[in-house]
Write a structure and sequence with these properties.
With about 300 residues, the chain is α/β, with parallel strands linked by helices. About 35% of the residues lie in helices and about 20% in strands. It contains 12 helices and 13 strands.
């Protein structure tokens, strides 16, 4: 199976940390292609964040809409090659621009948007405020078309395209953000994890929206408890993978968290924590493409400190 492209992930880092250098729309490849995963489930190549879709007799259920109107239209073109049926349901894994900025395109065509309760609140507030300076904002004209019209707190089950689809807000409550959801396709034995999982990359942690490393670890452990060795795992960014790779990711984050937590308890400042290089054992494999070691260390540090004060 051809994995989704990660070439555009670099543009997220540039947008977040050096926004004058690039524009998301310019970084996107020209063509988005649908790739069959298994059963009725497809994913897409050449998108900034990973999407998946269930194609059934009654239409299409889509997970995440992309970074822009342009990318949403590219997804629509790819879907049209699979079926003439419309996208009826759109599920958002969380509120960040690269997962929701195409929502209005699908909403205008009649799709019902679904998200976690806090995700909707963040998305509405995000229309006028980005999560950090330079981070791309949410763009839509009509809230009724773009924001979720169905929300839930902990779990929601959908029946679509012959699939039982379970939407779960992590028990940790605050992981990548405070409004994440994980999607389980039970018949196909697939889990779509959104941005609690970046495969092969240090993950971005939205500290301003309640995110922190220990929440991500707890959320991933919750997923591991529900899946088996044959489960296909779709991360928010990076190639489609499996349980074994997710276990490696969790072990890496757990080790880094323990090191940074120990340094914080010893009274070290952020600069001192960076100088101690708590990510050094993992930088070659995880710190080359997206967040660099010091950038990730700062997010880890700030999240741990923020939660220690709660």
């Amino acid at each position: 199976m051809k994995p989704p492209s990660v070439c555009s992930i670099i543009s997220i880092a540039l947008l977040a940390f050096a926004p004058a250098w690039v524009r998301a729309a310019d970084a996107l490849p020209a063509a988005v292609e649908a790739v069959h995963v298994t059963g009725q489930v497809f994913t897409f190549t050449n998108t900034m964040s990973n999407s998946s879709a269930v194609v059934g007799d009654e239409g299409v259920l889509l997970i995440d809409s992309g970074t822009s109107t342009k990318e949403a239209e590219q997804r629509l073109s790819a879907i049209a090659k699979l079926t003439p049926k419309p996208v009826r349901l759109l599920v958002n894994t969380h509120w960040h621009f690269d997962h929701v900025n195409g929502n209005e395109v699908f909403g205008a065509q009649g799709a019902t948007v679904i998200g976690q309760t806090a995700m909707r609140s963040r998305m509405v507030a995000g229309k006028v405020g980005a999560p950090l300076p330079g981070f791309p904002t949410i763009t839509y004209e009509h809230e009724a078309l773009a924001a979720p019209v169905i929300t839930f707190d902990r779990e929601l089950t959908l029946h679509f395209g012959g699939e039982e689809i379970l939407l779960v807000h992590p028990a940790a409550d605050q992981a990548h953000t405070d409004g994440d959801l994980v999607v389980y396709f039970r018949q196909a034995n697939i889990v779509h994890m959104g941005d609690i999982y970046f495969q092969g990359l240090y993950p971005y942690i939205d500290v301003g929206s309640g995110g922190w490393i220990d929440g991500i670890v707890a959320a991933c452990r919750g997923v591991l408890a529900r899946i088996d060795g044959k489960t296909i795992v779709i991360p928010g960014h990076g190639p489609v993978t499996d349980k074994a790779h997710l276990e490696v990711y969790v072990a890496m984050l757990s080790d880094i968290s323990a090191k940074v937590t120990g340094l914080i308890r010893a009274g070290k400042t952020l600069d001192e924590v960076k100088a101690a290089k708590p990510t050094a054992a993992y930088d070659e494999g995880w710190g080359k493409v997206f967040l660099k070691p010091d950038q990730f260390t700062e997010l880890v540090y700030n999240g741990i400190v923020s939660h220690a004060h709660k």
